[in-house]
Task: inverse folding
């Protein structure tokens, strides 16, 4: 009898955990993975990249291949993008233009994690939080070393 109660308890706990996960997954879905050409351009198709800060400073840059490559590698999170701009105190707006489409991204750091936000589509986690491959390091480097015009 005691063994039967233990097995029944284990099955009940597993069922509760499974149902809890399904409810969590439905309430907080993972943002969709980014699709080439729909959500980010091919590096060879990019005509211009302009980086802006919330204070209105705007700089066109060239040599942006590393930036586009890092955007292509972001991972979806369970955070939703529900505003035109992020709620972060400081962020970079990255405007990428191709012949056929304009892409707008926001890059910011929050609690030691680098995020890329696409308004109303999703919030994505950068692959690198520190070092020269971090989006938060690539952007000021582009502004300093590769300003257009």
Result:
């Amino acid at each position: 009898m005691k063994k039967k109660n233990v097995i029944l308890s284990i099955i009940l706990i597993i069922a509760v955990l499974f149902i809890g996960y399904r409810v969590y997954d439905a309430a907080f879905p993972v943002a969709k993975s980014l699709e080439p050409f729909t959500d980010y351009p091919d590096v060879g198709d990019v005509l211009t990249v302009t980086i802006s800060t919330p204070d209105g400073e705007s700089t066109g840059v060239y040599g942006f291949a590393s930036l586009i490559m890092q955007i292509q590698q972001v991972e979806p999170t369970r955070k939703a993008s529900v505003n035109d701009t992020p709620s972060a105190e400081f962020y970079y707006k990255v405007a990428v233009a191709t012949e056929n489409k304009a892409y707008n991204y926001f890059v910011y750091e929050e609690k030691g994690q680098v995020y890329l936000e696409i308004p109303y589509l999703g919030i994505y986690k950068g692959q690198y939080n520190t070092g020269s491959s971090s989006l938060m390091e690539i952007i000021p480097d582009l502004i300093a070393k590769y300003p257009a015009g």
Summary: The mean pLDDT is 88. Helices lie at 2-27, 65-72, 135-145. The radius of gyration is 21 Å.
